[in-house]
Specification:
By secondary structure, the chain is mainly beta. It is 11% helix and 57% strand. It contains 1 helix and 9 strands. The strands form 2 sheets. Strands 1, 3, 5, 6, 7, 8 and 9 form a 7-stranded antiparallel sheet that branches.
């Protein structure tokens, strides 16, 4: 992992508690719509079996472009539902064993989170939901690593992009 990525992650973690120290807002009145947004930091890892070999998968950290916006509606003080829209960036990296080849796969998907909430709104509650995802773009990079004079050079050989909609 590059040093700049670690510094940015530490900076974001350092400023996040500042907003958490504010007092919680009052629960919205029943029969009103209100909105919430969020994001995810995804650490993905592929479980592969390539010709009987399960080695070569590298964890992929994607803290950006994982956004979600949700509309909430409380029917009463103890029951409500939500629906929204999300965008996710998920993928994995695979180094072919005993070669200098590296494959990088990345997929953007558009999601539709839906669910319901039970409990005391604004205090403690249980929510159950489902996030339906529709893959929009898949990108694959194939690179080969070369060593020349003590330096490592990475040359991208092929880049493929496809658009698809999976229902």
């Amino acid at each position: 992992m590059r040093l700049s990525t670690i510094i940015i992650a530490l900076f974001v973690c350092a400023i996040a508690p500042v907003h958490a120290q504010q007092s919680a807002p009052a629960a919205p009145a029943p029969h009103t719509w209100y909105f919430a947004s969020g994001g995810e930091w995804i650490l993905s890892y592929a479980l592969l079996d390539v010709k009987g070999d399960d080695k070569g998968s590298i964890p992929r950290f994607s803290p950006f472009f994982n956004l979600q916006r949700v509309a909430n509606y409380d029917v009463n003080e103890h029951f409500g539902f939500f629906v929204g829209l999300s965008l996710r960036n998920v993928g994995f990296i695979y180094d072919v064993p005993d070669t200098t080849l590296r494959y990088k796969f990345r997929t953007y998907s558009l999601g539709l989170p839906v669910g319901f909430k039970v409990g005391t709104m604004g205090k403690g509650l249980l929510f159950v939901g489902y996030n339906w995802n529709c893959r929009s773009t898949t990108r694959r990079n194939v690179s080969r690593t070369r060593r020349r004079g003590g330096q490592v050079q990475c040359v991208v050989q092929r880049c493929a992009t496809s658009r698809s909609s999976t229902l």
